[in-house]
Amino acid sequence: MLAARPRRELLKHKGGSKMKTPRSILKITLMMLMSIFIYSNAWAVSYDIKEMTPEVKASLDARRARYEQLAVMKAQGKVGENNRGYLEALESGDGVRDVVDAENNDRKSIYKTIVGQNGLPADALATVEKVFAQVQRDKAASGDSLQDESGNWIKK
User: Fold this and answer.
1) Which of 41, 49, 52, 138 is surrounded by the most beta carbons within 10 Å?
2) Residue 25: predicted pLDDT
3) Residues 140-152: pLDDT tens digits?
């Protein structure tokens, strides 16, 4: 699905696994948003951001700016990806709650934009969140904390 990444976009992550740089997080987020699939009536329908609004651009820029900080917090086990498409604080202190809240506000803004711009009913937000949660689990680095579908926290 993703093209081979240039070596300059790879960094060593705790445990020797590779993680993406802040620049590539924007590309991945945009690609992810452009290819979110919502399954309805047994047909796969693709929904995306049709207009890059100032709010969406600001959310994507803010996510890119905090990427390094989140990568460190994930590696330290302070935060994890829950099964609803949002970040969750697993420890307190060091401004963890502020970073988690900011990230989740930006994610929710993006999710709502996808729902709104594609004329989906309000209850489709939950589906967009679940799809995004799966994408986050798939791209998580080895050792990151993830919440599985049954609500249990595991390490990737």
Assistant:
1) 49
2) 60
3) 999 999 999 999 9
Q: Which residues pair with 2 in a beta bridge?
A: none
pTM of this structure: 0.73
On the question of pLDDT at 95 being above 60, the answer is yes
Query: Helix (H, G, I), strand (E, B), or coil: what is residue 156?
Result: coil
- Give me the mean pLDDT over the 70-75 stretch: 96
Burial class (CB in 10 A: 0-12, 13-18, 19+), 53: middle
For the chain, what are the domain ranges? Answer: 17-54+66-155
Please tell me the distance from the alpha carbon of residue 122 to that of residue 136, in angstroms, as a whole number: 22
With tokens 């929710």, the residue in question is 108
Mode of pairing for the β-strands spanning 145-147 and 79-81: parallel
- Our measurement of the distance from residue 71's CA atom to the centroid of its chain's CA atoms, rounded to an integer in Å, reads 12
* Amino acid, res. 118: N
The alpha-carbon radius of gyration of the chain (Å, integer) is 15
